[in-house]
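Marked as duplicate of an earlier ticket. Keeping the data here for the record.
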Amino acid sequence: MSRRYARILVAGCAAALAATVGASTALAAATWTVRPGGPVSLKSGTFTLKDTTTGAGATCPSSRLSGTLTSGSGLPGTGIGSITAGGGTQCGHGTLPATVTAAGLPWHVNFTSDNATTGTVSGSFSHVQIKIKTPGCGAVADGTSGTASDGTVKFTHTHSTGRLKVLTTGGNLHFYHVNGCFDLLHSGDPATLSATYTPSPAQTITSP
């Protein structure tokens, strides 16, 4: 083996090792520990459900979710909790008052990875459906259809603050069954959900 080829081989192995080490900080976790778990309520500040094509949607000064998290250790991340009720408060669609309600319940809570570098857990709500109702407007946000209840939104949970942030990327929400809405929402348009929740009681979520 020539010295030049050996140097190339060593450099390639070192790069592969560095990539592997870097990726390991956010690998999918096999098991989880949740404390205290049990019944949990989550309150957010501004909650926005937006049609990303038109830029319109429903905005609420605050929203609430309630449900349960499984308590213990050695837990699987899929279906580790459920959301059984939720909705926005004092919501509006344009200049109109709006009712925003969680539907397709229960939503499923899933944890996927724990990133030691950023101090965050990544996860998702699945089985998501959200209904909007205003005078002269009705719509459903869901995954593959307005009745499928298979919407997904991604979130991160930060260890240091205990807050859960719903992300506007990585989900599959679309609007369906749009009725009226003054051409501000369109059936089939992609939708995003954004909100940051504070769980009560605070939850410690780690892997393993």
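See parent ticket for discussion. Residues 3-24 form the longest helix (22 residues).
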